[in-house]
């Protein structure tokens, strides 16, 4: 029995590792569909594999880290041939999400993002701090192999770091929310979600490709989706908006028309970053307030039940009862006084 149980656990872990590797590779291929060139180096404004890697480690545990390495290797092999510097990239791509996961665990991070502090931890530890490793190692390997010179070092490093961080800010909370969501939602919620999705897609398409600089019109949609559907709704809205903004930026259309490469990168990353931060932190605040309200309502309901029992002269459920000895003593005192 013990051997069978160990074999079953090994098989489950192997399947999880392969699933993580497959998702990492597929997300990498999707991320490479839209890219920008800065100082001769190509980068993606949103790198989804980092978000998948952090979410997989938080959900399945650190045991699936080989899947991140394998997926990263497959993505690199798609881009170039195997060379000695590939090992450094593999180390950076694996170490960054692993360190992010360890830092989140150290601060008692909850995967349901039910507290405002969980949102802050994911932003500052999981995304901004953890992805410093992958960006530094990746750019360092470009410098070592003479593919990047010193004058463009900081621009490429910033683009790499922000792209990896955006993957964590958008993809990780969305996957965590979908993993913890209750399925299937009520039919009424599906109807509202469908209508809101149609409105969001139409508005985002208009805003991101309009010649007017009206990207700020996305924020009312983020607030609406966060109020009605919390983390799942707001992060889906942020993902759709980020994808459409990235498409517009790579085609130099809409608000990105007439800008040079550096200006496009800065404007796009500033918009994506502030939007993702707004969606994530607002959803965390709303979820925390709703949980607090439910706790208060539950406590009030229990208090009403206790007061009802006391008014009726009954002992409330779970309340204290007088010992038999004390009741007998009082009965004896009444009988003696007659």
Can I get a quick summary?
The protein is an all-alpha fold. The protein is built from 11 helices and 2 strands.
Number of helices: 11
Low-pLDDT segments: 325-338
N-to-C order of helices and strands? HEEHHHHHHHHHH
Net shape: globular
Mean pLDDT: 83
The radius of gyration computed from the alpha-carbon positions, rounded to a whole number of angstroms, is 27 Å
Strand order, largest beta sheet: 1-2
Count of distinct strands: 2
| First-to-last CA distance | 74 Å
Number of domains: 1
Main structural class: mainly alpha
Largest sheet: 2 strands, antiparallel
Amount of beta strand: under 5%
- What is the percent of helical residues? over 70%
Subcellular location: Cell membrane
Membrane topology: Multi-pass membrane protein
Organism: Streptomyces aquilus
Keywords: Cell membrane, Membrane, Transmembrane, Transmembrane helix
Question: How would you describe this structure to a colleague?
Answer:
Its main location: membrane. Residues 323-338 have a biased composition (Basic and acidic residues). Keywords: Cell membrane, Membrane, Transmembrane, Transmembrane helix. This protein is mainly α and 338 residues long. It has one domain. It has 11 helices and 2 strands, in the order H-E-E-H-H-H-H-H-H-H-H-H-H. It has helices at residues 2-31, 48-60, 65-79, 86-106, 116-129, 131-144, 153-180, 187-208, 218-250, 261-311, 324-336; strands at 36-38, 41-43. A two-stranded antiparallel ribbon has the order 1-2. The longest helix has 51 residues, at 261-311. It is globular, with a radius of gyration of 27 Å. It starts with a helix and ends with a helix.
